[in-house]
Amino acid sequence: MVNKEFIEKLFSIKDKVAVVTGATGALGSAVAAGYCMAGAKVILTARNGEKLSKLAAELKAAGGVCEHIAADPTVEEDVRKIMKFAADTYGELNILCTCHGFNAAKGVLEQSVEEWQKIMDANTKSVYLLAKYAAERMVAQKKGGKIVVTSSARSKRGMKGYTGYSASKGAVDLLVQSLGCDLGQYNIQVNSLNPTVFRSDLTEWMFHDDNVYQNFLKRLPIGRLGEPEDFIGMAIFLASPASDFFTSSNYAADGGYWGN
Ligand SMILES: NC(=O)c1ccc[n+]([C@@H]2O[C@H](COP(=O)([O-])OP(=O)(O)OC[C@H]3O[C@@H](n4cnc5c(N)ncnc54)[C@H](OP(=O)(O)O)[C@@H]3O)[C@@H](O)[C@H]2O)c1
After folding, report:
1. Domain range enclosing 32
2. Contact by Cβ (8 Å): 251, 193
3. What are the tens digits of pLDDT across the range 42-75?
4. 3-state class (DSSP) for residue 82
5. Structural domain includes residue 174
6. How many other C-beta atoms can be found within 10 angstroms of the C-beta atom of residue 214?
7. How much is the average pLDDT of 9-15?
8. Which residue's alpha carbon is at the smallest distance from atom 32 of ligand 1?
9. Residue closest by Cα to atom 24 of ligand 1
10. Which residues sit with their C-beta closer than 6 Å to ligand 1?
11. Helix (H, G, I), strand (E, B) or coil at 160
């Protein structure tokens, strides 16, 4: 029945335990702050412990409940440690939001196989590992769960210098669709958000290349690039009961880029 209580709970993630990866990045720190301010208990993770500790202090000072663990999401043992840390710290794990990622834009003739593999591991293998071990906990808890993966609008569009990045994100989109199929029976929903250009260290170079910058703007019906805050609403929606019927999907976070 649609009453006040139903609506109040619809978008609520209050008291849920969420792991946010790439928590020190532009999108990760926005999601981490959004989840904290929405009342979730948040485990912040990335590889650089100093940056994590600074972020955790800022979020706590703003009233958030969070702890942090430095870990490499491409290393299986580290990923298992993240999930154990979440359960040991807050008792369970309800939400995983992956916001880490890496690119080294280079032509196929210039890029080494090793560097290409590094992109694939950072963007694809890591998501597989995180989803696998988060799902293992969620299934054991028998309470369902939410997995929100940050992919990219580049997952469905190639680009010069992107044989690694576009391929890694295309794989992530299908990984998300298949994970949703595997985990539906456990009431675990898995979706991706596919951003186009948001302000971050990763996209800094685009802001300094006027041709690339103007070209992007022309292709965004909304007429501006994304700000990290634009990402928070959908990240909360996909972690909340409002998205219980939504799974195995790749959602554009792109100001209309895919539709143009
Ligand atoms: N910003 C955009 O315009 C945009 C567009 C499309 C897609 N995306 C995707 O959105 C996600 C977040 O991007 P962002 O812009 O927030 O990036 P960002 O500001 O550069 O932050 C990246 C985060 O990932 C971690 N990281 C960096 N290199 C890594 C590696 N090799 N392996 C594992 N973790 C690594 C970083 O922390 P540590 O180095 O401490 O681990 C950091 O927390 C990524 O998946 C990215 O591909 C972003």
Report:
1. 9-249
2. yes
3. 999 999 999 999 999 999 999 999 999 999 999 9
4. helix
5. yes
6. 10
7. 97
8. 122
9. 100
10. 22, 24-28, 46-48, 51, 73-74, 99-102, 122, 150, 152, 195, 197-198, 200-203
11. coil
Q: How far is the CA of 98 from the centre of ligand 1 (A)?
A: 9
Confidence band, pLDDT 50/70/90 cuts, at residue 213: confident
How many structural domains compose the chain?
1
In a domain, 255, yes or no: no
Q: What is the pLDDT of residues 68-113, one digit of tens each?
A: 999 999 999 999 999 999 999 999 999 999 999 999 999 999 999 9
Point out the catalytic residue in the list 35, 133, 165, 257. 165
The predicted model scores a pTM of 0.97
Residue 51 corresponds to which tokens in the numbers above? 């940056």
**CATH (domain of 137):** 3.40.50.720
User: Per the domain annotation, does 260 fall within a domain?
Assistant: no
The per-residue DSSP string of 110-121 comes to: TS-HHHHHHHHI
Residue 251 known to be catalytic: no
Q: What interhelical angle do 49-61 and 26-37 show, nearest 10?
A: 30
The first and second tokens of residue 85, run together, are: 């840390």
SS3 187: coil
| Whether the Cβ atoms of residue 15 and residue 36 lie closer than 8 Å to each other | no
Over residues 153-159, the mean pLDDT reads: 95
